[in-house]
Amino acid sequence: MDPNPTRLDDLMLNDRGFVFDPNTGESYQLSTTGLACLRSLQHGTTAAGVLAGILEAQEVDPLTARWDLDAFFWEIKQLGWL
Amino acid sequence: MNKQPYVAPTIRRVSQATANPQRLGRTPVMEAIDGVPVAGLLGEHGGPLFVFSEAALRAKIRDARRAFAAVYPKTTFAWSYKTNYLNAICRVFHQEGSLAEVVSGFEYEKARANGVPGYRIIFNGPHKTAGELRRAVEEGAMIQVDNRDEVLALAKLADELDREIRLGIRVHVDTGTHAVWSKFGFCAEDGEALRMIEWMTENTRLRVRGVHCHVGTFMLDAGAYATAADAVVRLALAAAEAGCGTVEYLNLGGGFASRARLHGQYLPPEQATPGFDDYARELCGTIKRLWPEGRDLPELLLETGRALVDEAGYLLTKVVAVKQRMLAGGCPALAAYGKGGSNGTLAAYGKGGPVSGAGGNRRNAVVLDAGIQILYTTAWYQPSVYPAAAPAAGMQPTTVYGCLCMNIDVIREEAALPEMNVGDAVVIHPVGAYNITQSMQFISYRPAVVMIDPAGRVHLIRRREVLEDVCGPEQVPEYLAETGEIAEEARVSVT
Lengths: 82, 495
Ligand SMILES: Cc1ncc(COP(=O)(O)O)c(C=O)c1O
Description:
The complex is a heterodimer of chains A (82) and B (495). By secondary structure, chain A is an alpha+beta fold. Chain A is globular, with a radius of gyration of 13 Å. Chain A has 4 helices and 4 strands. Helices cover 52% and strands 16% of the residues of chain A. In chain A, β1 (12-13) and β2 form a beta hairpin. The relative contact order of chain A is 0.15. Chain B is α/β, with parallel strands linked by helices. Chain B has 2 domains: 27-50 and 312-465, Beta Barrel (Lyase, Ornithine Decarboxylase, Chain A, domain 1), CATH 2.40.37.10; 85-304, Alanine racemase (TIM Barrel, Alpha-Beta Barrel), CATH 3.20.20.10. In chain B, β9, α7 and β10 (165-172) form a beta-alpha-beta unit. Classes of the chains: A alpha+beta (82), B alpha/beta (495). Chain A binds chain B through residues 1, 5, 18-19, 23-24, 26-34, 36-37, 54, 56-60, 64-65, 68-69, 71-72, 75-76, 78-80, and chain B through 1, 3-14, 18-19, 324, 331, 333-334, 346, 350-355, 358-360, 362, 393, 419. β4 of chain A pairs parallel with β1 (4-5) of chain B, so a sheet runs across the interface.
C-alpha cells in the first residue's frame, strides 16, 4: 500500500462543489468555500495559506474562519484525503 | 476590495436522499410581512417576536363568512378564545361580527372585558363553577351543558332564580375520521343525548334550544361535518318530536384545518386542506337536506379557531449557533451495499477507508433564540422555516433546534435552509393558533407580540415579559428572606 497516498489528487471535483471519491465510490457536496479550499490544497497551498485566502476574500473574523477551517480539515482527514 | 459574505467551508456526504436537488424544493425567502421588513421589526422590537397580520385575520374571517353565507345565510361565527386570546386579536374578530366562545371562567371574564355582552358569549367546556354558571345565566350567555353535574347545578339555579334557563346541549358523534371526542357531552348516536333532553324538559326548568357538537380539531376530511350535522339534525328533530320544544340553533364547533402541515402528512396543505367552501357544502348541505320543508331553518353557530388565525401569525427568530449534527448509524448508503462503511471492510480492499460515521455524514443544524416552549404546535405541525434574507448558498437539509436546554427542543427535524450564520433571521410560519395561549414561561421570557394593521403600521399588542411578570406572584417565606452569606460549610472548593 502506498505509504503516503495523495488522495486529494484522485478526487473528481466539479465547479458546483460536487466531489466524487473514486476510491470509495462515495459522493460529497462542498460549500463554495469548501470547494475553494479543496482546490487550493490540491494546488499545494498550505493550511495557513488557505486561511489567509478566506480572510482576504470574505467578511469573517479570523477566529471564526479558523474554527470552521479546522473543522473542515478534520472532516477531510477522516475521509483519508489529507 | 469589497469582501464577499462569509460561507463556511463544509462538506456533506451525498446520500441517495440528498442527491436529488428537487427533493428540498425551493424555499422562498420571507424578507417582509405585509410589506414591513423583518429586519426592521427585529431591530425595533428585538427578538424573538411574534407578528400578526391584521389584514390576514380579516381576510380569513371574511372568506369564511362569505363561504357559509353563500349556502346558509343564518350562520354566525364565534371566536374561539383559547385558540388565541390576545385582546387585540379577539377585538379584530369581534369587530368583524364574531361572538365569543369561551371554555372557562377566566376566558369568560376576558370576553366581558373585551366589551362582549353576555348574550353574545357561548360558554363551553367541562368545568364551569357554580359562580361562573350563575353569572353566565344572569348575563344571558349561551351555556352549552356538558355533563350530568352541570345539568343538576343549572337545574338548581333555575329553581333559585325562579325562571327557565335556555341552553345548548353538547353531544359527541363518531365521524369515523378521528378519535371520538367522547370526553365532552352526551352521545348523540345511542339515545343518551335525547334522553337527557327529555329528562331536562320533564324534570327541570332547563330548556334545550341548541345542540352543540365539536367533532375534533384539524379535520382534513370535510365529510366529517356531514356526518356530524346529520346526527345533530336528527337529534334536534327527535327532541321536537318528543315535545321538548324547538331547537333554535345548531352549533358545529370548530375544527376546520389551517394551512399547516402535520407530521407525516404527505400532501402539502395546498392540496390536502379543504377550503371553507368545502366545509360549508358538506355541513350546510346536510342540514338543508334533512330539515323538514316549511320549517324555519335553525341558526348555525361555528366556533372556528385555528383556520382563522394560524396563517396570520409568524415568529421572527434568529440563529444563535450553527452546528454540524452527527447522524446516527454511520453511512446508510454504504451499509445498504453491504459495505458497512466501516474501516475494516474498506481496509480489506487496501483503501484504508474513512472513519465510520465521520467525514461528511453530518447534517447542518441551527439553534434559534426561540424554542418549543412558545411553539407548542410543533408537536403536531412541521412549520415552514424561511430565511429572512436572500441566501448566499444553496439549500441543505437542516435540523432546526430551539434554545432550550432540553434534547426534545427540536422545531424541525429537517428543513430546507441555506448555510446559515449566527445572527441570521428566520421566519417560522404558520404559528398563529394555540402557540400564544399554550406557551409556557419556561427558561426564558415570553416574547413580545406585534400586529401589523392594514395600513402597514406596527402595534405592540403584548410586551416582552420581564422578571416581575414571572416573580410577581411569588412569595418568599420570611425565614428565607435574607440570602446573606453562603454558610461556610456549604462552600464547595473547586480547587
Ligand atoms: C368546543 C370547542 N370549540 C371550538 C374549538 C376550536 O377548534 P379549532 O381551533 O380546531 O377550530 C375547540 C378546540 O378544541 C373546542 O373544544
